[in-house]
Amino acid sequence: MGGPVDPRAENAWLRSYPFWDAYFAIVLVATIVAIVVDGGAPVAIVLLLLITASYAVWGHKAVRAPVAPIKEGWWHVAAMLVLFTAAYLVAPESAVALSALIPMTFMALRAARAVAVMVAMFAGPAIQLMAENGAHPLLITVAIVIGLSANSLLGIFIDRLARQNTGRARLIEELDRTREELAEVSKEAGILAERERLAGDIHDTLAQGFASILMLLQAAGDGRDPHVARAAQTAKENLAETRALIAALAPPALEGASLEEALGRLARGFELPVEMTVTGDVGVPRPVEEVLVRAAQEGLANVRKHARARTVRLELEQVPGSAVRMSISDDGCGFDPSAVRDGYGLRAMRNRVARLGGTIQVTGCPGEGTTVAVELPCSG
Description:
It is built from twelve helices and five strands. It is of the alpha+beta class. A hairpin with a 5-residue loop joins strand 4 and strand 5. The protein is rod-shaped. Its EC number is 2.7.13.3. This is Oxygen sensor histidine kinase NreB. It is an enzyme of class 2 (transferase).
């Protein structure tokens, strides 16, 4: 269930948890041995084992929580406080368990709350021990203050170490996310560079070749030979397809132009009449502009190749709620989107739009044209 950053985020604090579990187990065994050796009440052992059960059910999760306290931590600490107090009342040897219970409290609750719980668990045994030894009240007070202070400092150290390592793990995750984003940007830049190179190669070879063939056929034919006319028409159609492919591969026409201007160029350069309307003051980041221009290129290319349309309508509008919407509609033959799989161009368009958190909707009906609608958040 872990992500790719888990091994690196697993710092020294996380790796220490098994050692803490072993320490808690050792202290529990030592406490039980002390109770048995001193002839303490067996019920104290049962109460200590119940604390172990509480740790297995709640405490194990609580001490490992990235941010404390969680509800399991409160339940475990409450169970610890009640069960330890009862165990100490019937067997004072249970005080040995404090060396594990106090660190456990700081790991489950952290800082100030843990200090209050520690005082409740520590004060009673300390006072009773000093009183039984006939110590002066001032000495008892000083000893309690020193003991509480030392344990508080240890607890605060545990708390700060846990917070520091949690922050470090979060920072590593953010760095890895940034690295993945940079890798994606680099990949996209490489793809764009390769597309531009392919567009140049196609222009220098296929496009110029079809143009030359068309010129030669037009020069050789006098309009009466149907085969020459057919060859010229085929060369003309293939030249148009090649130019459309070059336009789709070339970088978006945004250099030195606004989004509206770039879309206007595409509309004016299209073979069919394109009615373009812009609603609202459309202002979006450059990545969103590039995706919209790419989507317009692909949408118009699909109209050219498949629609057999007479007119096209391109609409761009600012949608309430910080989004921008672009739609390309034609009056062509149409199709049922649910019955046809997406082609490569539409899949590529969906991927680009999805990377920016947008959506694409294709609607149409045989004989009634097709509409491709792209909606993207303005934040990019």
